[in-house]
Specification:
Helix 2 (21-30) packs across helix 3 and helix 3 crosses helix 4. The protein is an all-alpha fold. Helices cover 52% and strands 0% of the residues. It has one domain: Histone, subunit A (Orthogonal Bundle). The protein has 6 helices and no strands. Belongs to the histone H2A family. Residues 4-84 form the Core Histone H2A/H2B/H3 domain. GO terms for molecular function: DNA binding; protein heterodimerization activity; structural constituent of chromatin.
Amino acid sequence: MYDGTKKRVSRSIRAGLVFSVARIHRNLKTERVCLGKRVSAGAPVFLAAVLEYLLAEILETAGFQTREQQKSRMTARDITLAIKGDSELDKLFDKVTISEGGVVPYIQPQLLPTKKSRSRAVRARSEQLV
């Protein structure tokens, strides 16, 4: 039993995580994921570690995206571009839509103007100059 002499150490601190292991454990037990089933002691620690790693990856790449545009505030657009820019994250978040995220800018090569096809007006002006 706890007699009050030692300071309590949470499971998050023991695991070296920022995410709350106790909160994830409670959610695993009460939500439909494991409702009515037992949850091992290691499952919430593992899940907290995975969630923390994924969030760190997304925020790191989104931070680079924000800094590249010389902005001081990260937006949903930066997060979307960061996810779509990383092939593994893009595969993981394939069916996810982020509100206010927009789409990745891309113009198909067939739609770009070719070097040969100049407009008639441009050709007429160049012939008049000669």
